[in-house]
Amino acid sequence: MAFGSAYFVDRVGRRVLLMLSAAVMSINLAMLGCYVYWIAPCGAGGNWIPLVCLVLVIAGFAIGIGPIPWVAAGELIPPRAKGSSYFEQYHLSLV
What we know:
By secondary structure, the protein is mainly alpha-helical.
């Protein structure tokens, strides 16, 4: 998915992808929260809703918030500093 994101960053732009990614993730996390708060305690069925919400959250992350910092780092950081900056970026992404 990261290779596809690099293609879409060039065609659509970083800002649009980041906003779309954040919107998809926040809507689906809100839906998951509503399900857990209201529907799951009642046992009213709909056991597929959490799975769909989590799949869409992961898809939203893969569209923009996940790969765009890596794509942007490759474009913005000078070649002599890429090694150490990728090292720092990787370790900070684990936090």
